[in-house]
């Protein structure tokens, strides 16, 4: 298996079908939808589109991603793509992310909504501000130059396992990026398009959710740098700053 796609989904019945239909033909060997204790027809939509359906009763974005990784350990894909179920990302941008990983130019490529085209209002001002603060803190502590913590990303599966991901919630994307820098993965970004999501965001849709997510992300960035058992920083072959070179 070359490419597997993992889609965490919590009550995304109205959007999941659009996401699955938009994944380019021939770009994924298997699409795995992880139903994160939905109370609507999310699972039914996944099955109707031929996706592999997994259940993760423990709520949390990271928990759903971890469930997908555990399943794929027996499949051993070369690359795993993480994609949201709310149809805010454009699945047709997937080759921009997987191409550099499949060609061994990068271990990790993050889809940057900052570098790409955004529908007006797709990223609310408080999300833009929080994203800026998180990436600047990441640069200060790790030397990386990411512009975004966007969930749409591709990573070499074997290198992902080396990161020993553990965050079960909002800190998942930040944890992956800072651990990639610390473990010497060659990391880059590719511009991706972004539109208003279908439905209300579980994170940015409320002030409380935004504050909790922001605090968790910042804490994750700091914890991975100074926390117990944090590995010594190793620079990857891309040089002092593995994330500086953007993948186009």
| Total E-strand runs | 7
Helix/strand order: EHEHEHEHEHEHHEH
Roughly how much helix do the residues carry, as a percent range?
25-40%
Could you give the distance between the termini?
A: 25 Å
CATH fold name: Spore Coat Polysaccharide Biosynthesis Protein SpsA, Chain A
Strand content: 5-15%
Backbone shape: globular
Please identify the oligomeric state: single chain
Q: Give the biggest sheet.
A: 7 strands, mixed
Please list the strands of the largest sheet in the order they lie side by side: 3-2-1-4-6-5-7
Q: Could you say which structural class the secondary elements and strand pairing correspond to?
A: alpha/beta
Number of DSSP helical runs: 8
Mean pLDDT: 89
Number of domains: 1
Rg, rounded, reads 17 Å
Q: What key attributes describe this structure?
A:
7 strands, 248 residues, alpha/beta, Spore Coat Polysaccharide Biosynthesis Protein SpsA, Chain A, seven-stranded mixed sheet, 14% strand, globular
Verbal overview:
The protein has one domain (3-226): Spore Coat Polysaccharide Biosynthesis Protein SpsA, Chain A, CATH 3.90.550. The chain contains eight helices and seven strands; from the N terminus they run βαβαβαβαβαβααβα. It has helices spanning 13-22, 42-48, 61-72, 94-102, 125-142, 157-162, 172-182, 207-226, and strands spanning 3-9, 30-35, 52-55, 79-82, 108-112, 153-156, 187-191. It has a seven-stranded mixed beta sheet, sandwiched between helices. Helix 1 runs parallel beside helix 2 and helix 5 (125-142) packs parallel to helix 8 (207-226). Residues 231-248 have low confidence and may be disordered.
């Amino acid at each position: 298996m070359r490419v597997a796609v993992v889609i965490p989904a919590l009550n995304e019945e109205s959007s999941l079908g659009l996401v699955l239909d938009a994944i380019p033909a021939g770009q994924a060997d298997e699409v795995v939808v992880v139903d994160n204790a939905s109370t609507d027809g999310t699972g039914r939509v996944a099955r109707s589109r031929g996706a592999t359906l997994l259940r993760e009763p423990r709520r949390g974005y990271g928990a759903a991603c971890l469930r997908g990784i555990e399943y794929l350990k027996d499949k051993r894909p070369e690359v795993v793509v993480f994609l949201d179920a709310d149809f805010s990302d454009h699945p047709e941008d997937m080759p921009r992310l997987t191409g550099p990983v499949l060609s061994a130019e990068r271990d990790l490529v993050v889809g940057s909504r900052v570098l790409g085209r955004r529908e007006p209002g797709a990223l609310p001002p408080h999300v833009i501000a929080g994203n800026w603060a998180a990436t600047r803190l990441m640069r200060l502590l790790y030397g990386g130059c990411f512009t975004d913590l966007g969930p749409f990303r591709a990573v070499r599966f074997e290198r992902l396992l080396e990161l020993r991901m553990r965050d079960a919630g909002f800190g998942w994307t930040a944890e992956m990026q800072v651990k990639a820098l610390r473990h010497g993965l060659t990391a880059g970004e590719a511009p991706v398009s972004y539109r208003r999501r279908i439905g209300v965001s579980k994170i940015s849709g409320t002030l409380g959710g935004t504050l909790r997510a922001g605090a968790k992300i910042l804490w994750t960035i700091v914890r991975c740098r100074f926390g117990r058992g944090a590995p010594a920083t190793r620079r990857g072959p891309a040089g002092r700053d593995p994330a500086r070179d953007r993948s186009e």
